[in-house]
Design goal:
Length: 533
Amino acid sequence: MGVDLVDITAKRAALTPQRIAFEDALTGRTMTYAELDDRAARAAAALASLGVEREDRVAILCRNRVEFFEILFACAKLGAILAPLNWRAPAAELKPLMADCTPKALIYGAEDAASAHALAREGLALVALDPGPPASSPACAVSTPSDVAAGNVIAGEDAGGPSAYARLLADASPLRTERRWRGEAIWSLSYTSGTTGAPKGVIQTYQMAAVNAFHVAQAFGVNGGDTTLNFLPLFHTAGIQLVTLPTLIAGGTVIVTPGFDEARALELMPRLDVFFSVPAVYQQLALHPAFERADLSRVRSWGCGGAPLSDVLVERFAAKGVRVCNGYGMTETGPTAFVAAPEDALTKIGSVGKPQMLLDVRIVDVNGEDVAEGESGEIWMRGAGLTPGYWKRPEETAKAFTPDGWLRSGDIGRRDADGCYYVAGRIKEMYISGGENVYPAEVENALARHPAVLEAAVLGVADETWGEVGHAFVLMRPGAQPISAADLIQFCRGNLAGYKTPRHVTFVDEFPRTAAGKIRKHLLAPAPHAPSR
């Protein structure tokens, strides 16, 4: 038996009906918890009118907006499963995901209408969130439930008229079939970002949401008086869970913006209590001309995850009185697993802190045996907040978990004498140079300390003498004086052991990234025998 959730919006509407749940950052429109519950219940009825039943999938393709959460809660009320799609991916990359989750309906925003129409198929209901001209496809001309049953789809209304979604809600009566959301039931599917290969659908349950909300409340002190900002992409678990859903469960306010805008974020800081993001966003904030004069004093809790936060950035924010707490987690862990305590943020720079309350952790060697304190090994995790597995991929699930339930993270970590953990990166990224293990994250952090370097990514490449050596891809800081590959290599020699110093350097104009800001290293093209420049 899992940890169940009560109907979140219904309970919040009963407890704090007039408190503001959402605010649209662009329009200023607000929504109370009573209004959120009513709209989510109407959205559940609308989905039911399209033929969506318990455990059916509902795909959604849109930027950050309040309606996304209405539909997330509508799926819970109906017992359906939400499948957020990556709006940064072309339709060709989304088609396999659609085939994987086989949704009954696809709900889309105006910015992604072309992709949605390209994904149209017989029996799939297309629902527009925004007004706009009907799609050109002949299958998109009809907008009644009977037409959906016949294999047609719903499109937007004429420009200036109501969207199909708004009209469906207006015509619906509130529906609540699931008063209690069973812990083990599937709420959504989060497709992995694909930094190393094809995405997999990670099952997200109600129990995972409950455990994550508890961990977020423990780590950041989230409460009903808090306001936070939602901008991380909603097709990643962080966009939903860090820290929007825990804030809604607590009865706080979420300001929603379609995406990240550093100027708007800095303007909103005096209203925020909790801020969570990824290193790429902290980098953008620090580079903005308004950063030095920005008022950051109200924000009580600062969190970072998704990738290592460089020492340089930690120190840059510390100079403004901000302690950014590094964290670590995975889509598979719901995602909150580790968060550094504020008192350790500066004394243990680079640490992701200690495991959260409902999580057990081991650091193991290649044989699955625990390593000694201070030694590196693979991070294994077990607890109530972990996914039960991957959608329709039992073989992948079996590979990811041990028979007794430990999740093999694929990440290298170590634990210090105080019980704080450090993550060195993916096992697949580690390389062996002259018989010594090299962890790219350590080299990347050293490179980031050069005043001309904004960011670096390091790969291990074949070498006839040493087996493997490092190849650094470097993004220069805007306005920095030009430097050479030899300059950077010499800088590394002064800060790293010789075997860790990269032998090759390539300067890049930009990095291929996931929506969460992670560098997609498998798309970098090392040329180890070409001259460095």
